[in-house]
Amino acid sequence: MRRLLLVPVVLAALLWCAPAYSQARNQLGPLCTTETTPADQMVDACSKIIALKVFRGEQLATVYFWRAVGWNKKGDYAKVIADSTEAIRLQPSQAVYNLRGSAYYDKGDYDIAIADFDDALKQGPPSGIIFHNRGNAWRGKGDYTKAIADYDMSIKADPRSAFSFQNRGISKEALGDYDGALADVNQAIRLDPTLPQPLINRTSIWRAKGDLDRAITDGSEAIRLEKERPPVNIMTPPNSVLISGYTHRALAYEAKGDYARAREDYKATLAIVASDAGSKANQATAKVRLSLVTDAAVPIPRDAPSPTTQPTTTPAPQQTGATPAPSPAPAVRGTRVALIIGNGAYAHVKALPNPPNDARAIARSLRDIGFTVSEGVDLDRAAMQKMTRDFLRDAARAQVAVVYYAGHGVQVDGRNYLIPVDVELKPGTAMTEAMIDMDTIMAGLDDQVRTNILIFDACRNNPMAQHVASAGGSRGIEGASGLAAPSSLGAGATLGAGTLIAFATAPGQVALDGEGANSPFSAALSRHLGTPGLEVQQMLTRVRAEVVSTTKSKQVPWSNSSLLGEVYLAEK
After folding, report:
1. What DSSP line would sit under 326-361, residue for residue?
2. Within a 10 A sphere around the Cβ of 232, how many other Cβ atoms?
3. How far from chain centre, in Å, is Cα 378?
4. H-helix or E-strand containing 452?
5. Main-chain dihedrals φ then ψ at residue 501, nearest 5 degrees
6. Across 425-449, average pLDDT
7. In this structure, are strands 398-407 and 451-458 parallel, antiparallel, or unpaired?
8. What are the start and end residues of each CATH 1.25.40.10 domain in the chain?
9. Count of C-beta atoms within a 10 Å radius of residue 96
10. Do the beta carbons of residue 122 and residue 92 sit within 8 Å?
11. For residues 164 and 132, is the Cβ–Cβ distance under 8 A?
12. Is the pTM of this model over 0.70?
């Protein structure tokens, strides 16, 4: 989201007052240190000045700063950081710390960005611009209370800062204060009606309130304004506003059931070059949801038999090999939906006896507290992929989405995969194509108006070991590198607004299948899941304590949360 620039005007003036070659002063200087200079010309001019080796110290730091500004215009944040770091070495200043912090922010490195903004504030008097940018970084981390405090300081310094009102509104929306969010965003629009970003934010607020027509209207106006607006903001990542506008309008169209227009907007999102972390996260979501709405537009026969598939939305117990029941109807806004999968009958690796039992127990517990459940046991890849995609499509209008998976799971090149029962893991083959990518599920659920709870009772091991079939009685394929922590949690465009991911075991460890009918983790989870008035993170704390006790500390469940408030799966 919009960040602001401190321009070292005094330093630029000092630079050209210093004795230098006439070429640097008269020809290259204005191109290097003028905000409106096109990015390529700015980088080229500053690079030539550096090559002349005329300046030292403060003057040279200024040239590196302006070249970093040029890189920033191009969206090359690694080079922004490199040049800013050199400028800081030569002569620290508020401006250069702010610029480097902003580049780290756009890369999704929020902790480093906050450290740079802290240093920027130490370099000079309090700055509303730096408070604003630090607020953005706190918001990126999911600490909306600290973000609001920084936006308050920014607004105090500049009561006409439309972007500070806008971003404070985003933070209030994330905390569920839709009326406060709407008031702030409306004030941003009043202060500057030409800005597209506040309209995009109001699009998501209207969606959260269920007013899809207003959401679409605001999204359309935001896209129009951004297309007509000249590229004057050198601190806004290239194309980020347009990508965000198309994504949010597409989500509104999809929630309304207008899949044709949603498809067009998702395609438009993917056709734009993305440079910053938020835009890339938006495109990841657009890619998944485009495939979902494309499938939704084509009727798919639902009566073809599949011997390994048994999805259902009814409480009836499932029998392996049953003909699949029809997929659930699209969810109504405000409903709570769940996807439950338990895979144990593996054909090419050690079978697991308990995941089907675990899945049925969790599905039963969720139905008992009012969830609409899609349940599958011993699914091959085709069935698992179809059930997952049906669920992601139906979750578009749900208020709470729960995903539970029990079975084998692996990490490949930093990405996590869930393993269907027919997968054959052979070194040297395109194994990932035969599995279900966890990141795809997360991207498909990436939407700030919904709470997502993802629970995986799976191993955390690498499938590349040679002795694949000797996985033993654990939910692990042999190896020990562990599942990767979900890097997109809290760093994406919208995912951090309300997502919790829980694993049955700590990083690098194995989730035990257990000696009874259920795994230690799923047995504890099913016991506590339906407890009335038990907040979800407190529930997982109880589950963790029970698993540690049951397994004599051999297994310690792990979770990562960006939930903003208390979430109750079973009503008080």
Report:
1. PPPPPPPTTEEEEEEEE----SSS---SSHHHHHHH
2. 8
3. 30
4. strand 451-458
5. -120, 125
6. 79
7. parallel
8. 1-124, 141-193, 195-295
9. 31
10. no
11. yes
12. yes
Q: What is the edge-to-edge ordering of all strands in the sheet holding 335-342?
A: 372-377, 335-342, 398-407, 451-458, 499-503, 558-561
Alpha carbon of residue 492 to chain centroid: 2
CATH class as words, domain 1-124: mainly alpha
CATH topology (fold) of 195-295: 1.25.40
Helix or strand or coil: residue 559?
strand
CA 198 – CA 189 distance, rounded (Å): 6
Give the tokens for residue 528.
Answer: 């506590």
The token duo for 257 is 């059931």
**SS3 state at 398:** strand
User: What pLDDT score does 554 carry?
Assistant: 84
442/213 Cα distance (integer angstroms):
27
> Looking at per-residue confidence, does 302 or 195 come out higher?
195
The 3-state DSSP composition of the chain as helix, strand, coil percent (nearest 5) reads 55, 10, 40
∠ Cα 151 156 158 (to 5°): 90
Our CA angle for 565, 568, 572, nearest 5°, is: 120
Measure the CA angle with vertex 402, ends 436 and 496; round to 5°. Answer: 85
> Can you say whether residue 142 is alpha, beta or left, with left for phi > 0 and alpha for psi between -120 and 50 degrees?
left
Range scoring the smallest mean pLDDT among 79-83, 179-183, 230-234, 490-494: 490-494
- Structural contact between residues 194 and 242, judged by C-beta atoms closer than 8 angstroms: no
* Residue 448 confidence class, pLDDT cut points 50, 70, 90: confident
CA quadruple 281, 286, 292, 296: dihedral, nearest 10? 150
- Token pair of 524, please? 């504890």
Torsion angle of C-alpha atoms 219, 221, 224, 228, degrees rounded to 10 = -130
C-alpha–C-alpha distance, residues 370 and 401, integer Å: 12
User: Residue 290 — pLDDT band, cuts 50, 70, 90?
Assistant: very high
Q: Are strands 558-561 and 499-503 parallel, antiparallel or unpaired?
A: antiparallel
Q: Is the CA virtual torsion 220, 222, 225, 230 positive or negative? A: negative
R_g of the chain, CA atoms, integer Å: 26
Q: What is the CATH number of domain 335-561?
A: 3.40.50.1460
Cβ contacts of 496 within 8 Å, gap of 6 or more: 140, 141, 142, 489, 490, 562
Count of residues in the chain? 572
Which class is domain 141-193? mainly alpha
Q: Which residue is it, tokens 């290239």?
A: 238
Q: Which amino acid is residue 19, in one-letter code?
A: P
Crossing angle of helices 277-296/94-107, nearest 10°? Answer: 20
Phi and psi torsions of 78, nearest 5°: -65, -40
Residue ranges of alpha helices (H) inside 53-107 are 57-74, 77-90, 94-107
- How buried is 333 (Cβ within 10 angstroms: 0-12 exposed, 13-18 middle, 19+ buried)? middle
